[in-house]
Amino acid sequence: SESYPQVQRDSRFKELSSDDVKAFRDILGNASSAMVDGLSEDASDDIEGYNADWMKKYRGHARLVLKPSSTEQVSKILKYCNDNSIAVNPQGGNTGLVGGSVPVFDEVIINLSRMSQIRSFDDVSGTLVVDAGVILESADSYLAERGYIFPLDLGAKGSCQIGGNVATNAGGLRLLRYGSLHGNVLGLEAVLPDGTIMDDLTMLRKNNTGYDLKQLFIGGEGTIGIVTGVSIICPQRSPAVNVAYFGLESYEKCQQAFREAKKQLSEILSAFEMMDGNSQLLYSRASGAKLPLESEYPFYCLVETSGSNTDHDSEKLNTFLEHVMGEEIVSDGVVAENETQLQSLWACREGVSEASQHFGGVYKYDLSIPLQELYGIVAECRQRMEEQGLMGEGEDKPVVDVVGYGHMGDSNLHLNVACRRYDKAVEKALEPWVYEWVKERKGSISAEHGLGLAKKEFIGYSRSENMIKLMKQVKDLYDPKGIMNPYKYL
Ligand code: FAD
Ligand code: 2HG
Ligand code: ZN
Question: Buried (b) or exposed (e) across 33-59, using 16+ Cβ within 10 A?
Answer without folding.
Answer: bbbbbebbeeebeebeebbbbbbebbb
